[in-house]
Amino acid sequence: MEYGPPPLFNQGVSARARLAFFSFLAILLIVIDARVNVLDTIRIGVGVMLYPVQRVLLWPRDALTHAGRYLVTVGSLTHENAQLRESATERAAQLLQDEQLRLENAHLRQLQGLRERTGAKTQSVQVLYEPRDRFTHKLVIDRGSSDGLRSGNPVIDEQGVVGQVTRVFPMVSEVTMVTERDQSIPVEVVRNGLRCVAFGGSEPGTLELRFLAANADVSSGDAVVTSGLDGLYPAGLPVGTIARVERDVKDQFARVIVRPAGGVNANSVLVVLEVTAAPLPAPSRENLHNERPVRRSARQ
Amino acid sequence: MKLWPLRRANGDAAAATVTAVPRGQPHKQVLRPVRPVFIWASLAAGLALDLLPWGRTPLVPDFLALGLVFWNVHQPRRVGMGAAFLFGLLMDVHDGALFGEHALAYTLLSYGAIALHRRIQWVPVTSQSPYVLALLLVAQLASAAVRLWVGGASSNWWVGLTESAVGALLWPLVTWILFAPQRRSINRDETRPI
Q1: What residues in A contact B144, CB-CB < 8 Å?
Q2: Smallest Cα–Cα separation from A235: which of A168, A156, A176?
Q3: CB 3.0 to 4.6 Å from A226: which of A201, A231, A233, B137, for a disulfide?
Q4: Residue A135: closest CA among chain B residues belongs to which residue?
Q5: Is the dihedral of CA A81, A82, A83, A89 positive or negative?
Q6: What are the DSSP E strand ranges found in B16-132?
Q7: Has residue A250 got a pLDDT over 70?
Q8: Which residues neighbour B126 within 8 Å (Cβ) at sequence distance 6 or greater?
Q9: Cβ contacts of A18 on chain B, cutoff 8 Å
Q10: What is the pLDDT of residues A52-64, one digit of tens each?
Q11: Residue B170 DSSP class
């Protein structure tokens, strides 16, 4: 070991002062980042700098998976092929029927003069990695703002809603899973059209339907889909199935736990819907005037 | 508070060697000076190990934190809280965490290591693990506290604390690897097989 100057001589700023300085700086950054978005340019700068390193470090894993795929036996491939063919023939009939229904539906809509539902532009994306964060469940995907993704775009897989793009970098973006605590999504129960809002559950990996009355008509096994009321998630995407309903006498709300449909198995390919949230129309003067007396009567 | 009893008469000599050798061992190796390139390369390697796509694999320790503890304990003049802070910011961006969360955790870790470095160097390597465990736990709890404060933590966040235990168990190995270049003998042995 090399011998530094004895500690009684000048050693620069004391450790405690440095601790105070850097912790203060860190807490300041945390508070600023949690409240306002001014640090995003710094974050994007650091992210762009880290991007090549991150991509290089994904190589070992990708090489391993490629090697694993190469070693898949012929037997399992033929088995899978047979299964796929079976399901394809099963679906063919269904597809024909669907086609017919779609035509019929379009015709009926035209008759009724309804607006055609425009399909959103989609992009299929690859999952690069899951951040090692223990506190939240996120995914990092390989498309970013340079590919036209925006913060807020819904993300789905073949089974249902996975989450939402919450932060975009030029080349990658972060997807927050729908089961996260601060995520919410307007849904409806398929069986009876009951509308409510699903929030990330307090148990990890689940959703919760909040603010449903204790006697609401929901039961375990009901399918839950997006209602499309927020103008962001298109209507009818599967969100999950109700796992159980707890009705407590003391509580005026039922506790409804939903098991998510999408994002359950580690999919490496997801689909981002490039929907931009249409801003809600501003309340017109007439509406405001109409609403006021109602509120007053409600108060009296 | 009870201080560690001075077991050796030649206390200065013991402090001069970097690791305290077990008691009763006559031979104390004087280490070669550390090369700054090796310090920064090892920290970069720790960062790279953390950036590997571990996903939600359990029991994977924070390699960068281990490296920071090691160099803060053994070279507190060269690696300090500033470096820990900057590495923390990189980890924040990679993990998509709040800006400053890892920075705060690593700053605390670094301060703890610097404050305890004489005490940690005094005990044998295997007995250093509990100190390291405490330091890693404090850092993890700091970031957990930030998350609970801001309100974005899932309820099973404490599962991650097992990573600190794995990190502490790996400490002797980390010490062995990171001291290896300094333990080389000064006189190169020409008859050595390798």
Answers
A1: 135
A2: A156
A3: A233
A4: B153
A5: positive
A6: none
A7: yes
A8: B172
A9: 80-82, 111
A10: 998 898 888 888 8
A11: T
The pair of three-digit structure tokens given for residue B178, joined into one six-digit string? 């990171």
Q: Which residues contact B164 (CB under 8 A, 6 or more apart)?
A: B61, B133, B136, B137, B140
Neighbour count for residue B140 (Cβ, 10 Å):
22
- Name the residue type at position B85: F
Which structure tokens are listed for B14? 């013991």
Please tell me whether residue A163 adopts helix, strand or coil conformation.
strand
Tokens for A174, please give them.
């972060």
Residues B138, B69: Cα–Cα separation, whole Å: 12
Q: Token pair of A258, please?
A: 């939903």
Phi, psi of A165 (to 5 degrees): -70, 125
Cβ pair A132:B95 closer than 8 A: yes
Q: Which residues are CB-contacts of B18 (< 8 A; sequence separation ≥ 6)?
A: A1, B31, B74, B121, B179, B182
Residue with tokens 């070693």: A71
Q: Can you tell me the distance from the alpha carbon of B84 to that of B71, in angstroms, rounded to the nearest whole number? A: 10
CA distance B193 to chain A (A): 28
pLDDT in tens, chain B (194 residues): 444 444 444 444 444 444 554 554 445 678 888 889 999 999 999 999 998 888 777 888 999 999 999 999 999 888 889 999 999 999 998 888 888 899 999 999 999 999 999 999 999 998 999 999 999 999 999 988 888 887 666 666 777 788 899 999 999 999 999 998 888 877 777 777 76
Residue A121 phi, psi (nearest 5):
-70, 140
The verdict on A20 touching B (C-beta cutoff 8 Å) is: no
Q: Give yes or no for residue A275 having a pLDDT over 70.
A: yes
The structural domains of chain B, with segments of one domain joined by +, span 32-181
- N- to C-terminal Cα separation, chain B: 50
CB-based contact, A269 to chain B, within 8 Å: no
Cα separation, A69 vs A71, in Å, equals 5
Are B85 and A57 an interchain contact pair (Cβ–Cβ within 8 Å)?
Answer: no
CB-CB contact of A239 with A226 (8 Å): yes
The answer to whether A132 contacts B54, with C-beta atoms less than 8 Å apart, is: yes
- Closest chain A residue by Cα to residue B57: A132
From the CB of residue B50, how many other CB atoms can be counted at a distance below 10 Å?
23
Predicted pLDDT at A10:
67
- Min CA distance, B114 vs chain A (Å)? 8
Kindly identify which residue of chain B lies nearest to residue A18, measuring between CA atoms: B81
